[in-house]
Design a protein that fits this description.
Elements lengths: L2 E3 L1 E4 L2 E8 L19 H25 L2 H15 L1 H14 L3 H19 L1 H5 L1 H16 L13 E5 L4 H5 L6 E6 L7 H9 L3 E3 L12 E5 L4 E3 L4 H15 L9 E2 L5 E8 L2 H9 L4 E6 L13 H12 L6 E5 L34 H16 L8 E6 L5 H13 L5 E5 L2 H5 L1 H7 L2 E4 L1 H9 L17 H17 L14 E3 L7 H10 L3 E4 L4 H8 L4 H13 L3 H10 L2 H6 L2
Parallel strand pairs: 3-4, 4-5, 5-6, 10-11, 10-17, 11-12, 12-13, 13-14, 14-15, 15-16, 16-17
Antiparallel strand pairs: 1-8, 2-6, 3-7, 7-8, 9-10
Helix pairs in contact: 1-2, 1-3, 1-6, 2-6, 3-4, 4-6, 10-11, 11-12, 15-17, 17-20, 18-19, 18-20, 20-21
The protein binds phosphoenolpyruvate and magnesium ion.
Length: about 575
């Protein structure tokens, strides 16, 4: 029996067969030639045949792939059908005596360089050419194609980590669970798995010890993978399958606890398409609108009008509801050439997020002008109510400064993200000068544990179940009560509203703990809304407080999670 443990990032319990991600195709050695005496024409003819096989495979995969993945696969299949790569490669075999593998490799470089020279859209296709050439080389060698294995039956995918292109082609009807040996809980792989509702475990060291074809039980709520599959495991997996067949639904109106206590359930979004999806999922508003989408990949700041139009596009999906707009969070994992310094030795501890406004004030003030303009845009059904907040606040002076900028523009409520231990520990003083707080548990965890959220090797430290992180959530809520507030002001309790918008809010067990600690709204990927609402409905506020106390008193993140899971039988019943 072998068992491996990693960090659980998206729940679900499945039994399936492991297949690992194929390694990247190795470059054929320079100077690789066709065997002596071989006929160059026959060797060259293997190239279009291999390209045709690759094209057929990609087209077959495209037919059943979902959304964006379908488009990517179709584009790559088209590229495989394009004769220029094949013809260039055949020429290198017939006239230069190169091996078909080496010829395809070099031809790929030539075609990619040519496309890059053309610039714009054509340059973007260079990546497709390199992908196609790797596939053709694998086909010529009789090796497994690079990337996600092409299997007809559903399987458990194991990988070191996934590249963005692989994640785009991940088909959740084929891949029933995802396990990586690297990657952290905030890696794009983990975030994508949560968006897809795909059971996932990251940082599972040793997972590659399992041979392809091994049957395993994956408990992505706990983070374990074992090849000893028991009767009980079959029952758990059946509950999860049942949940997939009869998914939970969320009809809006907030999460209602067993005693009638209400908690706002909001969505995390990054653009207008996400806003539409969140509205369709009945989110009660937006708890985190990450505005970086407009700024990333730009060499210059977008103009106020362009920003206002983009924000209005998002706001119109939530007439009369709150949309928490976070001002630009540049730096660290989101560098911006016109705003952040690429040479900082410690970017996560550097001039990032709100701090960039110290030197380059106008980027923030322009953005606030744009949000204020968007808020005034007439929308059918009534305007959304933007709640504006700044990321990475540490001192009360910063909060005062940000609130003043918002007030000058008529933007109210104005709040802060609690992402630093400093903001959590003196939350009472922050919340005396601002209207609300939203806890970003992703950053709060990395700063509390002094562990880079992007490092797979520190994934076990980067868990929001860490009792120290939970203590800081509790401290923020205590501070909010001390600061007080007008019970009528925002339709919330007699405390300044405190939400959680980090990934922790979408974990149903942790959601109960957060509510027990005093959090009044939870914001998450829309897919998590039904499970969070369902699990919340099984506990009273008193029970949530009791579970929160147990988690706070635990010695470790694992003990905290185990204690809470033991007190929430619904998780097992749902296969979560
Ligand atoms: C967070 O830090 O928890 C958060 C929500 O912000 P981001 O993940 O965008 O840094
Ligand atoms: Mg953050």
């Amino acid at each position: 029996m072998s068992q491996y443990t990693g960090v659980a990032v998206s729940p679900g319990r499945v039994i399936g067969t492991i297949y690992s991600m194929a390694p990247p195709v190795a470059e054929p050695p320079a100077g690789d030639t066709i065997p002596e005496g071989a006929d160059p024409a026959t060797e060259a003819a293997r190239i279009p045949a291999a390209a045709a096989t690759v094209q057929a495979t990609l087209s077959r995969l495209a037919e059943r792939a979902p959304g964006e993945g379908k488009k990517i696969l179709e584009a790559t299949a088209q590229m495989a059908a394009d004769p220029s790569l094949s013809q260039t490669a055949q020429g290198l075999v017939t006239s230069g005596g190169k091996s078909p593998e080496r010829a395809v490799w070099e031809a790929g470089d030539q075609v990619a360089a040519m496309l890059e020279g053309l610039g714009g859209y054509m340059a973007e296709r260079a990546t497709d050419v390199r992908d196609v050439r790797a596939r053709i080389v694998a086909e010529l060698r009789g090796e497994q194609a690079p990337g996600i294995p092409e299997r007809d039956e559903p399987f458990v995918l194991t990988a070191i980590d996934l590249a963005p292109a692989d994640t785009a082609t991940l088909d959740p009807t084929r891949v029933i669970a995802l396990i990586t040996s690297d990657g952290g809980p905030q890696s794009h792989t983990a975030i994508l798995a949560r968006q897809l509702g795909l059971p996932a475990i990251v940082a599972a060291k040793g997972i590659h010890e399992f041979d392809d074809g091994t049957e395993v039980f994956v408990d992505a709520g706990l983070g374990t993978i074992t090849d000893e599959v028991t009767e009980e495991h079959h029952r758990f997996a059946a509950a999860w399958t049942e949940l997939q067949e009869n998914p939970l639904t969320y009809e809006g109106g907030g999460g209602v606890l067993a005693d009638g206590t209400r908690v706002q359930l909001l969505a995390n979004i990054g653009n207008a398409a996400d806003a539409q999806e969140a509205a369709a999922a009945h989110a009660d508003g937006v708890g985190l609108f990450r505005t970086e989408f407009l700024f990333l990949d730009r060499d210059e700041e977008p103009g106020v009008e362009e920003q206002a139009a983009a924000y209005a596009e998002v706001l119109r999906h939530f007439p009369g509801q709150k949309v928490v707009v976070r001002t630009i969070d540049a730096g660290a994992d989101k560098p911006l050439p016109f705003l952040t310094d690429a040479d900082e030795p410690n970017p996560a501890l550097g001039v990032r997020a709100y701090r960039t406004s110290w030197e380059k004030r106008s980027v923030l003030t322009n953005q606030l002008d744009a949000i204020a303009a968007a808020a005034k845009t007439a929308t059918p059904g009534g305007a959304a109510i933007p709640w504006v907040m700044a990321p990475m606040i540490a001192t009360v002076e910063e909060t005062e400064d940000f609130v003043a900028l918002c007030t000058e523009r008529g933007l109210q409520p104005a709040g802060i993200m609690v992402e630093t231990p400093s903001a959590a520990l003196i939350a009472d003083r922050h919340l005396t000068v601002c209207d609300f707080a939203s806890i970003g548990t992703n950053d709060l965890t990395q700063y509390t544990m002094a562990a880079d959220r992007q490092l797979g090797s520190l994934a076990h430290l980067n868990s929001p179940w860490q009792p120290a992180v939970l203590a800081l959530v509790g401290a923020t809520c205590t501070g909010a009560r001390t600061a007080g507030g007008d019970p009528q002001a925002y339709g919330e309790e007699a405390q300044r509203p405190v939400g959680v918008c980090g990934e922790a809010a979408g974990d149903p067990g942790l959601a109960v703990v957060l509510v027990g600690l005093g959090v009044s709204s939870l914001s998450m990927t829309p897919r998590s809304l039904p499970a969070v609402a369902r699990v919340l409905s099984t506990v009273s506020l008193e029970q949530a407080k009791d579970l929160a106390a147990q988690a706070l008193a635990a010695r470790s993140a694992e003990d905290a999670r185990d204690a809470v899971r033991a007190g929430l039988p619904i998780l097992g019943e749902l296969g979560l």
